[in-house]
Each structure stands twice: as structure tokens, then as C-alpha cells.
Amino acid sequence: MDIIGQTILNAPLGAQKGYNVLADSMMSQIRWHQPNAEANPLGHLNFVRRLVEWWNGRQMDRYIGTELDKRFSDYNSDPNNKRLKSVMDLVLQAYIAQSGDETPKVLDPVFRDFAIRQIRLFLFTGHDSTSSTICYAFHLLSQNPDTLSRIRSEHDKVLGEDYSKASAILEGNPKLLQELAYTTAVIKEVLRLFPPAASSRQGKPGVSINDDHGRACPTDDVIMIWTIHVELHRNPKYWKRPNDFLPERWLVEPTHELHPVKDAWRAFEYGPRNCIAQGIVMTELKIILACVVREFDFRPAYDEWDRLHPAKGVKVHRGDRAYQMEEAAAHPVEHYPCRVSLHQR
Questions:
Q1: Among 60, 113, 115, 109, which Cα is nearest to 93's?
Q2: Can you give the pTM of this predicted structure?
Q3: Which ranges in 160-180 belong to alpha helices (H)?
């Protein structure tokens, strides 16, 4: 949350050290999210949820609006300031550029409301889906010791064997991230097996979609066509050994049977619905793995969790206890209870 706050707002949230209105309201909003709302309309009768969500939204809007006004005031006092490069700064720069030669004295209310909503969306997607992917990266590495050993070796080679200096080395030479080919492959494979989101399209008269059997499915009256990435990413029609964690599939030659089919990997989607922040997400994930994966060992603690919270029902899906549940983005079930220890080299 602190990282995405700095990126979006160019302002420290301090969420790791204590209470922050924006960060805590966002986290509360995620906790109160109603999964499968479309299939359970009675859930909307929970008036407490509606009140909490309204209050959280009000708090976030007020916080972001204050930051937006403050940054706009900074531009008015120093329009040539080139140091401000957060998402909020870029939004304001585009707004001012469209205003002509004379910078407006106050923000247009319609634009201000629109900007607040978009910044909220950036904060949510930048934090929630990325944090889920981080959890699954550590989980899958813990279950695949050969992959863990290889990614650590790559970090030793590119960043030096003293992991405590990795952050300083990357800060001094960020281009080294481009040399972490295996780390990139690990991240893409994590996103293939556990994509944090899906995508949707709107139907259109006269447009049909063909299924795997060649049958045409008209979309004339369809409000939403849902692309379920996790199913597409594990479909044996497009992937060899679809349920296996194989980062090597991203490094093989195009003629190799493991090489991904074009457009079958849609973690960031394609076309007008693609994730405009995918570059920063991949960079953020690589930095986190480079700074953490050699120093700590992660081990899932679901056995302990199940002893403390006995419950009936299916607890494993596709052979994994850490299956995904909907909570805004897709999260590891039970928020991934785990044990973390210092790695003994």
C-alpha cells in the first residue's frame, strides 16, 4: 500500500507504521466487499455493509480530493516543476495542457470527481491484485525447491551474493532488473496459475463468439461476457501440463511444446481493457522478489489454521489448499496463513 501510494499520489501513507485514512478505508472496503453479488441479491439487504462502504468511500474521496487540490495548488505556484511524476501529477498535467494558455484557478468539479474515482481505482488495483500475486509467488516457490534455488542463484549472479545490498544495487542501477529473466518467468507463471482478476466485455448486436466446438454464441442481448482467466490459463487445449508450475515454459524456444500459445496468457488482458499499469506491476514484483526471496523462507501453515478453525467442506482445489477466493481481487483462501523464517545459507 505504501509503494502504490507513493506511485499514485507521490505522498507517503505510512500505512506500515500506523493508521492512515486512505489506506485503512481501502482495506476496510475490501474486507466488506460482497463476493458473488450478482448471484446473491439478498446480500444487498445488509444495511451495515452499505453504510460502511458509503463511509469508506466518503473518507477516501475526501483524502484524495485534498491531495488533488494541494497538488493543483503546487502547479499554480510553480508550473514548471518537472520533479512531480506520480500518476496524480500526470493527470493534472494533462488537464492543465487541455486548458490552453491560461492555467485555471480552480479544478473543474466534474473533472475533479472523475479524477478521484480513477485514482481510487488505481490505488485498489495497484495494491490488492499485486499483494495477492506476491503471496502466491512465495507460496509456489515454497512448494518448488528447485525453482526457488534457481531464482536465488540468478539473484546472486546479477545482484551479488550479499542480499542485504540488493536494494541499494537496484537503486543505483535499475536496469539490472532487465537481466532477471528467470525471475520474470517465475512471475508470469505465478500469474498464469493464480491470476488475481478476470475480464469482461459487453455484447454487441450482430457479433457472435464461437466456442471450442465451433458453435456460434450470439452476444446481442448479453450485458457482460466474462473471460475467466484462471480457467483459460489452465486449459489443456492451450497449455501443456497446465496445472504444473513451470517457469521454464517462458524461456523455451517457440518450437518447444511448452512455449505458450499466442494470446493465451491474459493476466493483464489485451486490447482496450488491458492493464495500463502492467509495466510498474512487473517491476514492483521483480524488486520485491529480488530483495526478499534470498533472505526469508516461507511455509504455508494451513494445517495449523485448520486445527485452530475446524470446519467441514472441501478444503483443496486442484490439489492446492491455497486456492483462490473472491475478495475484491482473488486472494488465497484464509488470507494465506504461513510461517516465515530467516533463510540459512
A1: 115
A2: 0.86
A3: 166-172
